Amino acid sequence: MTSPSLGKPQSRAALATTGWRTAIAFAVLAFAIYSVGVIYGTAIGALPARETHFSYLADAFLSGRLDVDREAAPWLTELVPRDGKWYVVYPPMPAVVLLPWVALFGTGVHTSWVSIVVAACAVGLAYLLLHRTGQTPQVSAWATVAFGFGTCFWYTALKGSSWHFAHVVAVFFLLLALVEGFGRNRPLLTGLFLGMAALSRLPVVMSAPVFLYRVARGRPDAIRRATLLCVGMGLLLSVNALYNWVRYDTVLDVGYYRIPGVLEDFWYPWGIFDLRYVPRSLYAMFLQGPVFVKTFPFVVPSLVGLGIFFTTPAFLLMFLAPANRLTWMSLCAAILIAIPSLLHGGIGATQFGYRFSLDFTPFLVLLMAQGFRGNVSGRAKALVAISVLVSLWGLRFASPVQPGWLGPDGMGLGR
Length: 415
Description:
By secondary structure, the protein is mainly alpha-helical. The protein has one domain (about 10-405). Helix content is about 55%, strand content about 5%. The protein has helices spanning about 10-15, 20-45, 55-60, 95-105, 110-130, 135-150, 155-160, 160-180, 185-200, 210-215, 220-250, 280-285, 310, 325-345, 360-370, 380-395; strands at about 80, 85-90, 290, 300. Strands 1-2 form a two-stranded antiparallel ribbon. Strands 3-4 form a two-stranded antiparallel ribbon. A hairpin with a 2-residue loop joins strand 1 and strand 2 (about 85-90). Helix 5 (about 110-130) runs antiparallel to helix 6. The radius of gyration is 21 Å and the shape is globular.
């Protein structure tokens, strides 16, 4: 195993056996714990979610169509009308993931169950990634616990709505791309996984330069390898372009602009994207705190979310990460992916935590693990434990929320 500062691939023989058993154990553990949340949420009526665009889109795919049956689900929001048809505005990969489930159970499939299956696999992949970047088994285990049970990923995995499910699928495929990138590092396969992640959450594509650096650096065939990664990613992006062309007569993702009345929404006084949204987004990402109320539980999550370090104090460990190649790669990728969200008028509400951060959370996990510096100190254990407790607090009180829990200035837009 190599040092985490270098992050070089291990031998193929070692990768075939090392870490897989623990990764599978983490996946099984995550599914068991997540299952309790789904069963409880269903019992109290908080689940299943109604906004399940992707189950209806999967049903349309199975029927040979791209448009959804509006009459079958008149409650769905953010649909785009064109020529008498209605289209789901979001990229289609989550619907592809749902295809076998919808084929078996129809559009009424309980998407939270599908979501936690995918999320549990992502938790196992997180351990495998940390193992492959050279972290010790102890650091890998604690950092995996922090990711699976100490970030907003837990809450998001349980929800099962279109917005939350898309994040879960994106994290899964991004972790697959990273596991491959730090394993056998086959550029075509890495590109395919990255393209699948991007077709779940478009901002993920912004990390492509970091993946290009990873597959090509120091290789005599760097151009060929970079080309193969671009081909793999390009195949998926071309599918998305064709998908847009059939729906909108353009290869660009313009669906959001075509949602009826979207530019009249209070989130978008300056359009969908604008530099003037950056302060608001930075506040939501880092500074949005909980809300204090006069009755039990006295401190509750804000409807508009919670800053990254409030949600996951263990991420503070990233400030102890050594200034090496893996750290810089992870930091650059996180910043690049965050750019579209910073420019976007919305901040992800309603939610627990700042769900847009899930687009780059795998890179935050790498940074956090680097901050352990190979040793699980008492401080690190405490931060992970607090993160898990915060997530449990969020699961209990973030949904359903009360009107008075919005925060001191309504939806936080005055920040």
